[in-house]
Amino acid sequence: MFAMVRLMVIGFFVLTVIYIVLSLYSRSVRKRKLEEWWEEEGKPGDLEDYIDNGLEDYDGSLRRKLILGVYVVPFSVMCIIIYLTNFA
Amino acid sequence: MVYLKWVFWITFWTLVVAIFHYTLPQVDIVRVTDTYEKRIDFGENSIFWANGDVGNDETVVNRDVFFIQTVRTNDRVMVYRNEDTGWGWPPYFKFDTSNLQAEAADNKSTAAAPTWVAIRHYGWRNEFMSIYPNAVGAWAVSGPDAPKGFPWLNAVIIALFLLVVLAIWRLWRRFRQGRIDPMVGGISDSFDAAGDAVSEHRSAISRWLGTWRAKK
Q1: Which chain A residue shows the shortest CA-CA distance from B205?
Q2: Which of A26, B2, B128, B144 could form a disulfide with B73 if both were Cys (CB 3.0 to 4.6 A apart)?
Q3: Does B200 score more than 80 pLDDT?
Q4: Topology, domain B21-149
């Protein structure tokens, strides 16, 4: 039981670090793209407002929720390995 | 300095290859001659042994370990240990040690009437350190020439690992070209640039944290 708790705690910690880094990276990529789109659209209005609105859309987007796969994928892989090793 | 660099990288990559060779699964076609358990007092080879059965006391210093004695298709013997890896390393999540021992015992055969078995295992046999590969799966096969199948899992894991290494290497190279090389050139310029970069990152972090607060 202790070994399982240890794996879960360490795994959760490591994946959380990856999640945060990936979230920050993804957001910065979106911000850079928004700057490019603002230029392409012929600079409509204030750049800051444009970026703030764009990032607010991004916060509710599916793309951002997909980053939760950082937790989902390793956990699923673990379950598949447990099944294949012990029960298949 | 150049030699030091070479020695470092050759050592590093040898270790990486060794770890993968030890950890990734391989399949042997064997004939099981006997199964037994033996009390093991772990010494300096303890790193090459896995865990006791999941749920049992983990703090004991010695325990009985299952072994599977086999003869390979080239008539040389191989002895496998059969241990739970449980929730630890390597991540095989193997809990069915006793079942595997029962399956192996069920497939025992003699040289006169051989039953060939494929054993998936990881690890090394080394007589000088008394270490054994750990069996993770066993299934009967048609004969000594039965196909083992292409190791897709190993290929995928190694490919993913190389992709990660490539990504880190590219990040590092870009970081060095962007931050360190100019630093060597004009120290004051890059100090300003580094300051800007830090403040930009800080505002990015605070804005990202802001997304967790209630929406306006």
Answers
A1: A24
A2: B144
A3: no
A4: OB fold (Dihydrolipoamide Acetyltransferase, E2P) (2.40.50)
- Residue A22 is predicted with a pLDDT of 92
The 10s digit of each residue's pLDDT in B24-42 is 999 999 999 999 999 988 8
DSSP chain A: -HHHHHHHHHHHHHHHHHHHHHHHHHHHHHHHHHHHHHHHTT--S-HHHHHHHHHHHHHTSHHHHGGGHHHHHHHHHHHHHHHHHHT-
* CB < 8 Å to B139, chain A: none
Would the CB atoms of B51 and A3 count as touching at under 8 Å? yes
Task: Say yes or no for a CB contact (<8 Å) between B95 and A3.
Answer: no
Q: How far apart are CA B109 and CA B71, in angstroms?
A: 10
Residue A7 in contact with partner chain B when CB distance is under 8 A: yes
Q: Give A60 to chain B, closest Cα distance, Å.
A: 10
Quick one: closest CA in B to A26, which residue?
A: B208
Q: 3-class SS at B3?
A: helix
| Shortest CA distance from A60: residue in chain B | B211
- Total domain count, chain A: 1
Give the predicted TM-score (pTM) of the model: 0.76
Task: Give the residue on A whose Cα is nearest the Cα of B98.
Answer: A86
Q: How far apart are CA B11 and CA B184, in angstroms?
A: 29
State yes or no: ipTM above 0.85: no
pLDDT at B190: 59
DSSP state of B89: S
- B162-188, pLDDT tens digit by residue? 999 999 999 999 988 887 777 676 665
Q: What does the angle CA B106 – CA A85 – CA B105 come to, to the nearest 5 degrees? A: 10
Expressed as residue numbers, the domain containing A20 is 2-86
The per-residue pLDDT for B191 is 62
Estimate to the nearest angstrom the gap between the alpha carbon of B209 and the chain centroid.
36
Inspect the interface and report whether the beta carbons of B87 and A4 lie closer than 8 Å. Answer: yes
